[in-house]
Amino acid sequence: MRSAQGSTVVVIGKESVGKSQLLASLTGCAASVGNFRGTTVSCDCYQCRGKTFVDTPGIVRQSDSETTRLALDRLQASEVVLLVAQATHLDDDLAEMLPLAAGKRGIVAVTFWDKVRQTSQVHEGLALLSRRSGLSIVPLDARAIDRGVREAVFAALEDSQAFPPSGTLPRVGWRVEPRAGIFEIPIIGTIVAAALLLIPAILAITTANWFAGITDAVVRSFLAPLVQWLNSSSVEGSLARAILAGDFGLFTMGPALFVWAAPTVLLYSAMLGAYKASGLIDRLDVALHPVARPLGLAGRDIIRVLMGFGCNVPAVISTRSCSNCSRGTCISAIAFGSACSYQLPAVLAVFSAIGQPQLTFAYLGYLFLTTCLYLRIFSPAVARSPLNQLLLSHRTFLSWPAPSSIWREMRLTIYQFFFRAMPIFVLISMATSILVWLNVLPWLAENLGHLLAAFRLPGEASLPIIMASLRKDGILLFLGGGSSASTPLTPLQALAGVYLASTLLPCLVTVWTIAREQSGKFAAWLVIRQAIAACTFTLVLVWAGYLLGW
Fold this sequence. Notes:
Structural class: alpha/beta
Distance between the termini: 71 Å
Number of helices: 21
Shape: elongated
Order of helices and strands: EHEEEHEHEHEHEHHHHHHHHHHHHHHHH
Helix content: 55-70%
């Protein structure tokens, strides 16, 4: 980029000002997923009329998050900037964003123009601001950009001027706030917000389970001839047979990734995408922050934890937007208490098999309680401080989300699932199959079985617990048969065994992702800490239940 007419335009603005919607409407093109230079952090890029628009993450000036840092670094390396400000809070947005763009060349796009009452005073204020700054300022509704507005934006980019210091500009003097609603009512707002966050998870899981119940048999019957051939005498006992058709082979357990996990990811990301595109997610963040802060989390971190119900990989990656003081706590919450797309179906299957489906509610309740206690113990004091305020400067407007907006929010999660989580899943499946073929895992389970006496569990339960530490569908080995635990379990033993298997360690895909996002040292300490906590909580559950005669 050597001139104002450069081919790359960096788009900056605060969170929730409508940058992504503006670019989608302006270019009429689907975004391509790229990375910030020198990093693995994804960003959306839009191509139109020979220009590349780089959609940076929303900037929170007071935040020390990785995404804000990368957005600022990308801004400093650019020459042409499209600064997006919200018409309802134009003075505030320009006061915060203009100093960052000072000296760069670019224009200002004012979104949410439809929310400002159109009077002559408003138009005169915007015209005065444009004259005093020397900048082209284009007011628009990002959801409905017509040809005239589109041409005005591109023409302004071709004749862009340098951004002045913010202190030299007049103030337009207006501020528009949406009316307070149910989320602003103390206690009630928090309860409603929590319910609205749980509903997508419940709907996604139950719908995906229903879909999987129909398609699982079809997929497995389709692969049955291939599995039978691999189990034939010519390859029986071979390493290839173990990797492809063994108990944890790619063709035996791999279909579960599509039949069980993929629908959960798609449905849950669609529902959260609708929340984000409508502006509802910001309202939920504010309502939940008072109850999240004592645990070392921000309100918005709860959404990231619940993303783990779809897939832990995009959930962990999304913590890049967390403050540095709460990011570690948020990752710990995902690793310990956020059930991946395999985990809950496996838990339901085990409890249903022993005729105790109601144990699912006891499991989820105890998981929630112990996750809160775990975070309270291990989160840093600075994250729990009353001074740790949510960095949202104003209440967001709500609107019905368009399907295109929902898809735009979904696509990055889907991309991360298929192109980041799946390759790791394949590698771990192969490694697990090799360890089973070498008899390492069965030997380990046999020799560690006696340790389970402290948890009042039979020795055969060691294999499901070890396998679930590698992949959460290992919980299914509690169902019995083959190499799995065949001793009938009491309801208390089933609850304790499933809880220990699901929380003892994060699955290897999650550990791998955490190590890449943070460091190997951070991941190792998290694994050790989580194992100690899971064992402690399981001992409390088992012996309290035993003493109470359960």
